[in-house]
Amino acid sequence: MSNSREQILQSLRRETQPFPYAKAPSTYLHMVPSGDLSPEELETIFVDNAQKAACIVHQPASQEEAIQTLLDIVGEDRKISSWEPDQIPVHGFESALDKAGIAYVGEDALVNVGVTGVDAALAATGSLVLSSGHGRYRSASLLPPIHVAVVSRAQITTDLETWLVGQRTKGLERMRQTSNIVIITGPSRTADIAMQLVMGMHGPRELHIILID
Amino acid sequence: MEVQSNNFIPAARIAIHDVDLRTAVAMGTDSGFVKRQAVMFADGKAHGEAIRGQAAAIKRNALNKLPDLLEQAEAAMQENGIEVLWAADAAEANRLVLEIADRHDVHSVVKSKSMVTEEIGLNKILEEDSIDVLETDLGEFIVQLGEETPSHIVIPICHKTKESIRQLMIDKADMPPTDDTDEMARFARNYLRQRFLDADMGVSGGNFVIAETGTLCLVSNEGNIRLVTSQPRVHVALVGIEKVIPTLEDYATLTQVLPRSATGQTMTVYTHMINGPQRDDEIDGPEHVYVIFVDNGRSQIYTSDYCEALACIRCGACLNGCPVYKVTGGHAYGWVYPGPIGAVITPLLVGLENAKPLPYASSLCGMCKEVCPVIIDIPRMLLDLRYDLVRSGYTGLDWNMGMKAYAFGGSSPRLFSWAGKAAELATKRFKLNSLPGPLAGWTDYRSMPSFAVKSFHQLWGETNGDLEGADEQ
After folding, report:
1. What is the pLDDT of residues B91-118, one digit of tens each?
2. CB–CB of A180 and B31 under 8 A?
């Protein structure tokens, strides 16, 4: 189809490798070294790193309290952007919204709050992994100035390395079916103007994490 | 972009007298440098160095397999629903983007920061075709308002003070006067938001492509890349052919080493893995995703002694550590890639004859290699480029004559010793404190040291007897 393709590939085929002594690592060091961690230790590390990345972490004692935390963040607004309730791991989310008279939509550029679940939470960097898919809208974690992510404790994983190896174990085909994966570490920011940190550049300026069982 | 690298010395001379520029550049580079040190070695020097070694091995292993990896990546991306195109040079890359724009009836484009698109001058080409182009990274947006070019790989407006940015936004974008950085950024956010929602096509670069999964990987802090790659109907990514890596494990290392080296973050706010257009059961995301592999001189570097330069992951750490970049800023380098890595890549991509001063724009202190996350031996390549310059006859007559004179004197022990004696007489007895003619540059801004009364050879002779005998031992 393309002459340039053949031409480029042809010109890259050299007789000897450019770095004959270079090999892929046989085992990969993790960016942050860690031994075996208990779930409690993982949670502590995750919360600490998420806070360092300027996230606001809530650790409600029950599902009801989690719902209340969520409603408090939504405040007076009667419309939010949200993933489908079956994608968010908190019981009674939909009925609570109903009761409070809050409508939810997949994509809306004008609402204040976006609610999502996550695929995983990475302790070593305080990051959230979100994949797109049915009922999992990209815009909910992007367009509103406030993003609320509901994370269940079982979703906390050591680090990016561990999560990616997990994907390999589950089968890469499954991962490739997902059109878009974004790993979010804190709210959007910029330091382009004279190295002064400004939160909330193009994405949310507040990122709330609600940790539940 | 027009190459002005042969103008390095006059441009640098102007830059080092610009107090605002030096203040701004020092602030940006020092901040990056200090934060990098802290995070790279947070778990100890040995661990940090081992990670660098791992990243270096990953990139070199990937380059070893480059043609195979490109084919593997192409097949995997096609399976994922991404259309893959190839561009031999800048003209072809631009033509491909125009064809895509035409096919999808595109009138407005939002762009995220991409060095390759700077390299091929894409914005101008799109504008000539009556397509609206808007840079969306805050720094690049300000660069576009000022009709300038970026001066740093990671911090595009590293050369600008807050005051000059403020004035530019007031003059060119009708920003209500404010001195508050938050308000300035919020103004830019609102200015750009509707354009994002209305744009037909998003154009991005690419930090990595994972061959085994056909995944396009990007990083950003502002969130503009998320908007560029998910709001418009069409997403086009221009990616240098050297960006392909084999596996997810390789990716995990590189995508974390990059922000650590660039800004001292453990992860960027948004780390993107894009596997293709929106699937049938999704309501948002682009309908079409294109990846254009751009060569534009890279395959020539690949088969040269400078292949190592292709390992660069564009973190900008070498700029932040470089004593030359810190005083000249990026524009003096005269093209897209500034700093130590730019001094290597620019002559290789635009031709040695068009960037003759750049291999000399270094004190060879070695800091660039020391901070490079993939341990690129930039000083070695700068020296080799100097060798190439001399061999190709691109060095000036005064340089060549000086070197010939030194070679002549240095090859005869007697002449060498006479020259030493003459230097001692001139500086000690006749108080010579500045050098004449082409050598004046050395003494205009530093004091001329006086030579010792007794040379090393003399002292050696006095303490160890016969010099020739000492040489033979």
Report:
1. 999 999 999 999 999 999 999 999 999 9
2. no
**pLDDT over threshold 90, residue A76:** yes
Phi, psi (5° rounding) for residue A145? -70, -20
**Nearest residue to A191 via CA among B181, B34, B49:** B181
CA dist A80 and A115 (Å) reads 8
Mean pLDDT of chain B: 93
Q: Does B28 touch chain A (CB under 8 A)?
A: yes
Chain A residue with Cα closest to B53: A25
- Only one residue has tokens 């080799």, namely B384
Q: Which two tokens stand for residue B472?
A: 């033979």
Chain A contact for B242, CB < 8 A? no
Rg (CA), chain A: 21
Query: Tokens in use for A91?
Result: 């019981």
Answer yes or no: are the C-beta atoms of A170 and A43 closer than 8 Å. no
Please give the mean pLDDT across all residues of chain A.
94
Cα B161 to chain center, whole Å?
21
A 10 A CB-CB count for B42 gives 14
Query: Across the interface, do B223 and A142 touch by the CB < 8 Å criterion?
Result: yes
Question: CA B402 to CA B321: how far, in whole Å?
Answer: 31
CATH architecture of B41-296: 3-Layer(aba) Sandwich (3.40)
What are the angstrom distances between the C-alpha of B361 and each of B9, B338, B358, B440?
9, 10, 5, 18
Burial of A210 (0-12, 13-18, 19+ CB in 10 A): buried
> What span, in angstroms and rounded, lies between the C-alpha atoms of B48 and B253?
12
Residue pair B329/B21 in contact by the 8 Å Cβ criterion: yes
Question: B251 and B106 in contact (C-beta within 8 Å)?
Answer: no
Q: Which residues of A70-83 are buried (b: 16+ CB within 10 A; e: fewer)?
A: beebbeeeebbbbb
- Token pair listed for A198: 């400004």
Catalogue all structural domains in chain A, each as residue range(s) with its CATH number. Answer: 38-212 (3.40.50.10420)
Say how far residue A174 (Cα) sits from the centre of its chain. Answer: 18
Q: What strand order describes the sheet that includes B270-274?
A: A156-157, A120-122, A127-131, A180-184, B270-274, B215-220, B208-210, B244-245
List CB contacts (< 8 A) between B54 and chain A: 25, 28-29
Cβ neighbours of A194 in B, within 8 Å: 24, 27, 160-162, 165, 181
A131-150 per-position pLDDT tens digit: 999 999 999 999 999 999 99
B254 and B75 Cβ atoms separated by less than 8 Å: no
Domain ranges of chain B: 41-296, 410-472
For residues B150 and B118, the answer to whether their CB atoms sit within 8 Å is: yes
CA pair distance B248, A169, nearest whole angstrom: 12
Cβ atoms A180, B81 nearer than 8 A = no
pTM: 0.93
CA distance linking residue B126 with residue A36, whole number of Å? 53
User: Contacts of residue A183 in chain B, CB cutoff 8 Å?
Assistant: 267, 270-273
User: What's chain B's length in residues?
Assistant: 473
Residue A108, token pair as written in the block? 């809306």
The verdict on B192 touching A (C-beta cutoff 8 Å) is yes
Distance between CA atoms of residues A111 and A132, nearest Å: 20
Which candidate from B50, B139, B284 shows the least CB-CB separation from A137?
B284
- In sequence order, what are the residues at sequence separation of 6 or more whose Cβ sits closer than 8 angstroms to the Cβ of residue B115? B153, B205, B314, B336, B337
- Cβ neighbours for A112, distance < 8 A, ≥ 6 positions apart: A74, A77, A80, A144, A145, A146
Nearest to A206 by CA among A139, A149, A145: A145
Q: Could you say which DSSP state residue B311 is in?
A: G
